[in-house]
Give the backbone structure.
Amino acid sequence: MLLPNSSKPLLSVMLANYNHGHYLRESLTAIIEQDYADFELLIIDDGSTDDSNVIIEEFVSDFPQIVFLRNSKNEGGLTAIRKLLDRASGDYLYFAAADDRVLPGFFRKSMTLLDNFPDAGLCSGLVKMITADGAEIGNYLSPIISDKPWFFTPDMVAEKLLDYGPWFMGNSLIYRRAVLEAAGGFNYELGPFADGFVYQAMALQTGACFIPESLAIWRRTAEGYSANTYANWDESLAIIDRTEALMTNEYKKIFPQDYVKKWLRLARFRQGLSSWGVHWQRQNEFIDKSRKLMSKWLAPINWLLALILKLAGLLYLTLGIIILIAGIRPPLKWISRRLFLAIRTINRINPIKAVGNIMGRL
């Protein structure tokens, strides 16, 4: 339930959208139907070319207190977030994704815990995953650091990070605005990891709340800002390097340096795993489409190329695991990088699609 325009909300819910019209009704309805009244909803459309604006206008018509901003052209997700933050008036902040969905009770449970522990800089929970078409995948395997809702002091956060690694999930996380600003806000040079860095810094400075239940649904797709970034090896590694520099310099007093070493090792592995996962998903989608292009007598060629791509992906994943276990060693890192570049080149050439298009003209 949204507050009337005359009221100052405690929580600002912000949603940036670009060409996600097919998901918007689901995501906006889930927000509006939350059993917590003290929030405002701000939406920005970042130059969509689909029916997004028509759908958003329908919601604005029913709920005129929604703040609706529009970009005449696509300016990027980070610019959209800046504009939303400039208009937000709440003391707490939640960044919703147009293709994800919040679960019932999320706002109420999180805000109650934050109210009970005024020192906490944020509150986060677990998330469920679905495919692009809405099929359930299961729970995302993030660390469960408590079996009941709880507040962790900065020292406890540092201990849990060393034991488990980061457990924060951005789409189930509410920020205390004053703490976010005191931590320096979002460093937009970190791209899609801008939030991942700052909520660790916030938790280490003021502590964090945790709710051991699913509060939101994450739609896993092979497209989008984060997926496209993680699919780019060089850009992803540059973000990791910039993050390491912040943790070991400007934020050195906040981040335990033994944790930084562990985080760096895991981040490089997870980057490789995420990159592999995005390419694996794109390869599967690409292979499925190619089957429709090829005639039956060319099916063995399609099968062989698909097998080569999948074996290369599995080999890349195996190398990533070796790197995680052995540490970042130059020879292994070089081999892994060269193999990744080879897989990327195969994807760009699109040999299956090329053959299929030729056969379709014969």
Remarks:
- The domain at 1-97 is CATH 3.90.550.10 (Spore Coat Polysaccharide Biosynthesis Protein SpsA; Chain A).
- The longest helix spans residues 257-293.
- The radius of gyration is 22 Å.
- The chain has three domains: 1-97, 100-221, 244-361.
